[in-house]
Amino acid sequence: MQPHVLSFETSNEQAIQELMSLAHRLGVKVSETTASTNRQADVARRAALFRSLFGAWQSEGETGDDLNRLLQAARYTEQRDIEL
């Protein structure tokens, strides 16, 4: 039989204690997380995904030096006449 997972959300400490007590009496495994725990896990997961992308660029025709030269050549650095 597959395990069932139930999720309760409340900031009422008494309700949390009663649910934990009931689970203990029933012999049910309990795991508690808080919003900040979930947020920290989400931030860590996103950071790991971001870091995994470093160095992932691949090109069949251009090297990094070629791409750098293209970007440098495309820059527009002359003064522009702007009236405010």
Please give a quick description of this structure.
It is built from three helices and no strands. It has 84 residues and is mainly α.
Describe, in plain words, how this protein is organized in 3D.
The structure is a single chain. By secondary structure, this protein is mostly helical. It has one domain. It is 51% helix and 0% strand. The protein is elongated. The model has no long low-confidence stretch (mean pLDDT 84).
Q: Which properties best describe this structure?
A:
mainly alpha; 51% helix; single chain; 84 residues
User: How far from one another are the termini?
Assistant: 72 Å
Mean pLDDT: 84
Over all CA atoms, what is the radius of gyration? 27 Å
Largest sheet: none
Our estimate of the beta-strand percent is: under 5%
Shape: elongated
List the secondary-structure elements in sequence, H or E. Answer: HHH
SSE class: mainly alpha
Number of helices: 3
What's the helical proportion of residues? 40-55%
Unreliable runs: none
Total number of strands: 0
Helices and strands in order:
Elements: H1 13-26, H2 35-52, H3 64-74
